[in-house]
Design goal:
about 290 residues; alpha/beta; 6-stranded parallel β-sheet; about 50% helix
Length: about 290
């Protein structure tokens, strides 16, 4: 019998974490973070990492567990998430996967083969555009999900695909899973995103980056963690003494939310929809699934 897991997806700002916490209380669950940036210890404000008060004593795994200077990739996430699912299940609890990095979620539910041999070359001679073009020819969906600017993930995908292996789903699913989609009216979502950016800035986002810059200097510029939306903009404003373009961060975040929605609607069937008002209905369907 396959282990049962609950997965919560949705665009940034749609309330995935708050729903996950309420569900965890209702079904005796523990959370596994599937956000590619909330995993880092040193960045919290701009990644909307849940606080202890928000978690309300609910356990969350793979959250703030990796230094920004440590190597972190989708393969490590897959390995650790699978181990964590097993541990949670052995405690007779329900694993709840929550996060906005949909490729991370896919690698679990479709059991991606992410094995790659030790890199024989560093590919420094290849530009991001060249890496992206190669990946797009092999797997257009993966290329579009990674984007042009995330060199670390581009390199990882290039390694795997250049060996003739696949980043697409395998035939056998290793979990029995239920996906809950946090849906929100587009206008309300965009208003919430704009307000969230303002709130994060008011809560010390710039100071968080500034303190890291004082400690580590230009080393931050090459880190994967600083490809998170807004972090490079803030770092550049600090380094160059220019006014932070807050509207750009808001626009980038809205565009990211739009890409997340496109992925979810194109990839997942038979979603249970949480419309922000039907919590009891969602809990009932989850409990029925777990029987």
């Amino acid at each position: 019998m396959k282990n049962k897991i609950v997965i919560i997806v949705g665009p940034t700002g749609s309330g995935k974490t708050s729903l996950a916490v309420k569900l965890a209380k209702a079904i005796n669950g523990e959370l596994i973070n599937a956000d590619a940036y909330q995993v880092y210890q040193e960045i919290s404000v701009g990644t909307a990492k849940p606080s202890l008060s928000e978690l309300q004593d609910i356990s969350i795994h793979l959250n703030g567990t990796v230094s920004i200077f440590e190597d972190w990739n989708i393969k490590k996430f897959q390995t650790l998430a699978n181990e964590t699912i097993k541990e949670i299940t052995q405690k007779n609890k329900t694993p709840i996967i929550v996060g906005g990095s949909n490729l991370y979620i896919n690698c679990l539910i479709y059991n991606y083969d992410l094995s790659a041999s030790e890199r024989k070359e560093n590919f420094d001679n290849l530009s991001n555009e060249e890496l992206y073009k190669f990946i797009e020819e092999k797997d257009k969906e993966v290329a579009h999900k990674i984007g042009l600017n995330n060199r670390k993930r581009l390199l990882r995908a290039y390694e795997i695909l250049s060996e003739g292996k696949s980043l697409t789903k395998t035939n056998e699913k290793i979990y029995d899973y239920l996906i809950v989609f946090c849906e929100m009216d587009r206008e309300k979502l965009y208003d919430k995103i704009n307000n969230n950016v303002d709130r994060m800035l008011a809560n010390g986002w710039v100071n968080e980056v500034n303190q890291l810059y004082k400690t580590y200097g230009d080393k931050l510029k090459s880190l994967n963690a600083f490809t998170a939306i807004g972090y490079r903009d803030i770092l550049d404003s600090i380094c160059n003494g220019i006014t932070l373009d807050v509207d750009k961060i808001k626009t980038d975040t809205r565009h990211y939310a739009k890409r997340q929605l496109t992925w979810i609607k194109n990839k997942y069937d038979n979603l249970i929809v949480f419309n922000q008002e039907n919590y009891e209905e969602v809990v009932g369907k989850v409990e029925e699934f777990l029987k």
